[in-house]
Every structure is written in C-alpha cells, then in structure tokens.
Amino acid sequence: MTISESEMAAAREQALGARGERRLLNALAGLIMRAGLAPALWLWGRSGADGWTGVDPGMVAAAEVWALPVLDPAAVAGAAVWGAHLCAALLAAGFFTRLAAVAVLLGCGAFAAWVAPEGWSSALLVAAPAAYLALRGPGAISLDYAAGLTAR
After folding, report:
1. Do residues 110 and 136 make contact, with C-beta atoms less than 8 angstroms apart?
2. Which of 6, 115, 120, 143 is 20 to 30 Å from 127 at the Cα level?
3. pLDDT tens digit string along 97-114?
4. CA triplet 35, 36, 39: central angle to 5 degrees?
5. Which candidate, 57, 56, 30, 35, places its Cα nearest to that of 45?
6. Per-residue model confidence as pLDDT tens digits over 117-151
7. Burial 59-92 (b: 16+ CB within 10 A, else e)
8. Can you give the pLDDT at residue 16?
9. pLDDT tens figures, 52-107
C-alpha cells in the first residue's frame, strides 16, 4: 500500500494545524495563569507596603508573630512585601517567569508552614497557577518567549 503525495501533504497539514492549535492553547493558558496571579500578588504587596519605600509597621509586627527561625522580622516583612511586587511585575510581563513562579511557590510553602498553617488552602490557590508557570512556562505571549528564554 502506497501513500500518494496528496495524502502525505494532507497529513502534514493536519499535523501542523494540530500543533498550531496546541501552541495557541498553551499561550492562552500561560497568559491566563499570569493574568490571574500577578494582580493578586501585586495587591497583597501593596497592602503590606508603606508608600513606595517602606514596609507597613503592621506587617513587621505580623512577621514577629510568624516565628520564622533565626530571621529578622523586619527583613522578612520587607522581603515578602517587595518580593511580591517584583514577582507580580515579572509575571505580568512574562519575564523570568519560571524563576518568579518558583519564588511564589517558596513563599506559599513558607506561608503554609510558618505563617498560617490553617490557611493552607489559600496558599494552595496561589501555588497552583505558580506551579503551572514553573513547570510549563509563560507561553508564547510573553517577553520570555520573545527573548528566546523559553522553548518555542
């Protein structure tokens, strides 16, 4: 049984169409994950900030209660607040997305382990899209893709 050239061309065209559809779905999924996660992180960071330069004293007081081992509460609060801002900006732009997503995952782990163990479900809601982005990347609608920092 032989396959004609027209059948080969049709099969090739169908495979390219399926691959293009999969790329489009992956690009949209990455964009949706980033669009949902970045504003939530940004708003959380803004709630703990004191203007654009400092950390809210209430956040530092909360960090004292978190009982993180051998870490200065003011440094922990600052890292959490400004780290949330940085990760939100990187995720929104789709730049160094996997690194930002891993940082968010680490923050979720610290939150669930030390800050509010009873709030593990809240941490899971943030960790799920972060895990997707860490594992799959930002998709084609991102600066990572444009700069060639992710697979095409």
Report:
1. no
2. 143
3. 999 999 999 999 988 888
4. 80
5. 56
6. 888 898 999 999 999 999 999 989 999 998 988 76
7. bbebbeebebeeeebeebbbbbbebbbbbbebbb
8. 59
9. 888 888 888 888 877 666 788 888 888 888 999 999 999 999 999 999 999 999 99
Share of the chain above pLDDT 90, in %: 40
DSSP calls for the chain: ----HHHHHHHHHHHHHHHHHHHHHHHHHHHHHHHHHHHHHHHHHHHTEETTTEE-HHHHHHHHHTT-TT--HHHHHHHHHHHHHHHHHHHHHTSSHHHHHHHHHHHHHHIIIII-GGGHHHHHHHHHHHHHHHHH-S-SSSHHHHTT-S--
Written as one letter, the residue type at 10 is A
Distance (Å, whole) CA 55 – CA 48: 6
Which pair of structure tokens corresponds to residue 130?
């972060």
Tokens of 104: 């968010």
Residue whose pair of structure tokens reads 């979720």 in the numeric block = 108
